[in-house]
């Protein structure tokens, strides 16, 4: 009559939460690597910014890929969603720490586009 366990797992929000945790673990690892590079060599501000942007892209692509493997249908849409959720958490954290955007609107919009599109790309490749 009802859904079996695999159907419930596919329809629940648990896979999204698990993927978001995985995405933030990947982000943490990549930021630790970036911090180690900064301490070893003198990176310019531009290189650090590129490293941070690359971290967002890799993390969201991986999250989109993971959710696409789990969901099987409309993978691009699921990837876009996890990229958007990843960005939403980043935005909320930024708002909490900085108590506002502080003139960073263009940067935030660019980050939103990068996160959602790389998540969607990951979902499409999965």
Précis, in short:
The chain has 126 residues and is mostly helical. 84% of the residues lie in helices and 0% in strands.
Model description:
- It is a single chain.
- With 126 residues, the protein is an all-alpha fold.
- Helices cover 84% and strands 0% of the residues.
- It contains five helices and no strands.
- The model has no long low-confidence stretch (mean pLDDT 87).
Task: Please supply descriptive tags for the structure shown above.
126 residues, 5 helices
Largest pleated sheet: none
By DSSP (H or I, 4+ residues per run), the number of helices equals 5
Low-pLDDT regions: none
What characteristic shape results from the CA principal axes? Answer: globular
What's the order of the H and E elements? HHHHH
Report helical residue fraction.
Answer: over 70%
Oligomer status:
single chain
Radius of gyration: 16 Å
Strand content: under 5%
Structural class: mainly alpha
Give the SSE layout.
Layout: H1 5-11, H2 14-40, H3 45-71, H4 75-98, H5 105-125
């Amino acid at each position: 009559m009802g859904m079996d366990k695999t159907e419930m797992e596919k329809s629940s929000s648990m896979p999204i939460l698990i993927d978001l945790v995985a995405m933030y673990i990947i982000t943490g690892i990549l930021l630790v690597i970036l911090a180690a590079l900064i301490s070893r060599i003198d990176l310019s501000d531009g290189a650090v910014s590129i490293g941070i942007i690359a971290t967002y892209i890799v993390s969201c692509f991986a999250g989109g890929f993971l959710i696409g493997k789990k969901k099987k249908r409309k993978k691009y849409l699921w990837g876009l969603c996890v990229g958007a959720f990843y960005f939403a958490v980043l935005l909320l954290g930024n708002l909490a720490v900085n108590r506002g955007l502080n003139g960073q609107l263009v940067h935030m919009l660019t980050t939103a586009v990068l996160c959602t599109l790389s998540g969607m790309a990951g979902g499409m490749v999965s």
